[in-house]
Write a structure and sequence with these properties.
With 195 residues, the protein is mostly helical. It contains six helices and five strands. The strands form two sheets. Strands 4-1-5 form a three-stranded antiparallel sheet, covered by helices on one side. A hairpin with a 5-residue loop joins strand 2 (156-159) and strand 3 (165-168). Helix 1 runs parallel beside helix 3 (58-93) and helix 3 crosses helix 5 (107-126). The chain is elongated and about 85 Å long.
C-alpha cells in the first residue's frame, strides 16, 4: 500500500517513547524516498496523457499526489522528531553524548548535534558577563549549594573553583558544589547520595 514505509518510520519513533533515540533507519528512509520518486514519475507520465484528453486518469493522479504529500509529511515528521530528541539529549547529557547514543545517529545528525552544541555554547558565553552563563546547570532548582556524591567509576582529578582538586575514585564519597558535579551526575560518573 502506498505510504506504508514512511508511516512505518513514524510508528517506530512513536513506539520508542519520548526520551529514547532509536537507531537511524537509513534503509527505511531510502525506500520511502524511492517510493515517492516512483509515484512522482508515474504521475508525470499520467499528467502527459491527461493533457492529451484522458480525463479518467485525473482521480488516479490526485490519489498519487495525496500519497506523495503524506509520505513527505511522514518523512519530515520522522526527521524533525529525531532532531528534537537529539536536542533534548544535549540538555540531558551535556556536550558529549555516550557512544551508545551516537551509534544510533546518522552522520548528518552528529553534524547537526555538533553545530547545535557550538551554537548553544556561543550563546551561553555571550550571556552573563565575562564567564558566561551555563544554562545546562540547575535544570531543577537546588535545595542546597553542596551535595554529597558517590563516585561510580574512576574519573581522576576534579578541580573545584577554589583551586582544590579532588581525586574521584570508584566508591569514594565527597561533599561538592552542586553546580560543579551536575554534569558528572548526568554522565554517570557520580551519583547523588540522598539522606
Amino acid at each position: 500500500m502506498a505510504g506504508e514505509r514512511a508511516a512505518g518510520l513514524v510508528r517506530e519513533l512513536h513506539r520508542a517513547g519520548g526520551g529514547h533515540l532509536p537507531p537511524f533507519r537509513a534503509e527505511g528512509l531510502r525506500q520511502a524516498l524511492e517510493e515517492m520518486r516512483a509515484l512522482y514519475e508515474r504521475n508525470q507520465a499520467d499528467v502527459a496523457e491527461a493533457k492529451s484528453g484522458r480525463t479518467d486518469l485525473i482521480f488516479l493522479i490526485r490519489f498519487r499526489h495525496c500519497c506523495l504529500l503524506r509520505n513527505q509529511r511522514c518523512v519530515l515528521a520522522y526527521l524533525y522528531d529525531r532532531l528534537l530528541r537529539i536536542r533534548a539529549l544535549r540538555w540531558e547529557y551535556g556536550s558529549v553524548l555516550p557512544n551508545t547514543i551516537q551509534f544510533h545517529m546518522s552522520a548528518e545528525e552528529v553534524e547537526w548535534f555538533n553545530r547545535y552544541k557550538k551554537s548553544l555554547a556561543t550563546y551561553m558565553r555571550s550571556v552573563g558577563g565575562e564567564e558566561g552563563l551555563d544554562l545546562t546547570q540547575d535544570i531543577k532548582p537546588p535545595k542546597s549549594l553542596y551535595i554529597e556524591v558517590r563516585c561510580l567509576r574512576d574519573y581522576g582529578e576534579f578541580e573545584i573553583d577554589d583551586g582544590t582538586t579532588v581525586l574521584l575514585k570508584k566508591n569514594s564519597q565527597h561533599f561538592l558544589p552542586r553546580w560543579k558535579c551536575e554534569q558528572l551526575i548526568r554522565q554517570g560518573v557520580l551519583e547523588h547520595i540522598l539522606s
